[in-house]
């Protein structure tokens, strides 16, 4: 106790001597070290690889993905090939994202098999993969040594069935039908062809006389439709596996002055809705492209966080006709 009193008196004397006259003792505080606020956590980096932006369907898909970017707090890098048939370019885009060390890749593959080796490389590097729109071939995925890849899309067969069935309604006489297919190596193209055939052929008066690919392209659809009608001039029903091809077919029909042909497409693009309202197109299928983009990014983020995700997420399809067109 004495030691404490002496120490206090000594400190007071030193304080008075050092400061001259003072109204009270000088109180010194230890120097405080500035403490930096913790750095904010880096946002997860997710890459979105699509087929092209020349098709409005993928423009809508990007809008949905961008909405997810804003709402979920991630950084999204969008990469697209020049055309839906530019598979090698899509492969390179995947390689670019691997080099950029993104945390996840969401991909709408132009081909159901050829992208798999690059995606396997991504997975081996710790990158999460989500498949949207066109499904990767499950057998090829397994053979590559990959676990099943979460898939977000619609039931393409069921959607196309709705369109085919609608085209066949009210047909009471023998009638010829035709189909414009997408890229034949794409699973969604095969599913849509099968669904349209099933819907059309439920009416026993309908015969599908030709089914040819136009590779999702408007100009190619114009040319293929021209060849179809040169060989089968009495075609009255035409299903196109996307709206872009349907619009190409309609262009040919208008220029050649062919009337009485009912055309259905797939995607519910704005241009297709306009043609439906004008009476030039019978129907299309809305597969909610923006929702596919949103859900793909959401699943990618859940994978990054090590959350469990469903193997398949199915988005609803809707038949759009003149009666239901927005």
Structure, explained:
By secondary structure, this protein is of the alpha/beta class. It has two domains: 45-153 and 289-314, 3-Layer(aba) Sandwich (Rossmann fold); 156-286, Rossmann fold. The chain contains eleven helices and twelve strands. It has helices at 2-19, 56-72, 87-99, 116-124, 138-143, 156-168, 187-201, 218-231, 243-255, 270-277, 289-304, and strands at residues 45-50, 75-80, 104-107, 128-132, 151-154, 175-181, 206-213, 235-240, 262-264, 284-286, 312-315, 318-320. Strands 2-1-3-4-5-11 form a six-stranded parallel β-sheet, sandwiched between helices. The protein has a four-stranded parallel β-sheet with strand order 7-6-8-9, sandwiched between helices. Helix 2 (56-72) runs parallel beside helix 11 and helix 8 (218-231) packs across helix 9 (243-255). Mean pLDDT is 90; it is low at 1-34.
Give the SSE map.
Elements: H1 2-19, E1 45-50, H2 56-72, E2 75-80, H3 87-99, E3 104-107, H4 116-124, E4 128-132, H5 138-143, E5 151-154, H6 156-168, E6 175-181, H7 187-201, E7 206-213, H8 218-231, E8 235-240, H9 243-255, E9 262-264, H10 270-277, E10 284-286, H11 289-304, E11 312-315, E12 318-320
Parallel strand pairs: 1-2, 1-3, 3-4, 4-5, 5-11, 6-7, 6-8, 8-9
Antiparallel strand pairs: 10-12
In brief, what are we looking at here?
By secondary structure, the protein is of the alpha/beta class. 44% of the residues lie in helices and 18% in strands.
Mean pLDDT: 90
Q: Characterize the largest beta sheet: strand count, sense, and whether it forms a barrel.
A: 6 strands, parallel
From the N-terminal CA to the C-terminal CA, the straight-line distance is 90 Å
**Please, what is the CATH homologous superfamily of the largest domain?**
Response regulator
Structural class: alpha/beta
The total domain count is 2
Q: What oligomeric assembly is this protein in? A: single chain
């Amino acid at each position: 106790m004495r030691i404490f009193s002496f120490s206090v008196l000594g400190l007071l004397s030193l304080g008075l001597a050092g400061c001259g006259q003072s109204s009270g003792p000088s109180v010194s505080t230890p120097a405080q070290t500035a403490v930096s606020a913790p750095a904010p956590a880096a946002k997860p980096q997710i890459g979105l690889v699509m087929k092209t932006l020349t098709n409005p369907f993928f423009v809508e898909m990007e809008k949905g993905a961008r909405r997810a970017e804003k709402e979920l707090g991630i950084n999204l890098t969008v990469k697209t090939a020049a055309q839906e048939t530019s598979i090698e370019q899509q492969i390179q885009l995947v390689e670019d994202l691997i080099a950029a060390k993104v945390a996840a890749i969401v991909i709408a593959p132009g081909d159901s098999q050829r992208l798999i080796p690059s995606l396997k490389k991504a997975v081996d590097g710790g990158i999460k993969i989500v498949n949207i729109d066109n499904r990767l071939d499950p057998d090829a995925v397994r053979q590559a040594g990959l676990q099943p890849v979460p898939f977000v899309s619609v039931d393409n067969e069921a959607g196309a069935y709705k369109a085919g069935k609608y085209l066949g309604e009210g047909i009471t006489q023998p009638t010829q039908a035709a189909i414009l297919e997408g890229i034949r190596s794409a699973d969604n193209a095969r599913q849509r062809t099968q669904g349209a055939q099933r819907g059309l052929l439920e009416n026993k008066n309908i015969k599908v006389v030709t089914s040819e690919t136009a590779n999702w392209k408007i100009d190619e659809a114009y040319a293929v439709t021209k060849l179809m009608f040169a060989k089968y001039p009495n075609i009255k029903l035409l299903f196109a596996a996307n709206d872009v091809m349907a619009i190409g077919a309609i262009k040919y029909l208008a220029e050649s002055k062919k009337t009485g042909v009912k055309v259905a497409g797939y995607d519910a693009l704005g241009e297709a809705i306009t043609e439906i309202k004008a009476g030039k197109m019978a129907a299309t299928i809305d597969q909610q492209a923006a929702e596919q983009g949103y859900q793909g990014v959401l699943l990618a983020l859940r994978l990054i966080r090590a959350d469990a995700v469903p193997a398949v997420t199915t988005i609803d399809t809707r038949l759009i006709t003149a009666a239901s067109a927005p």
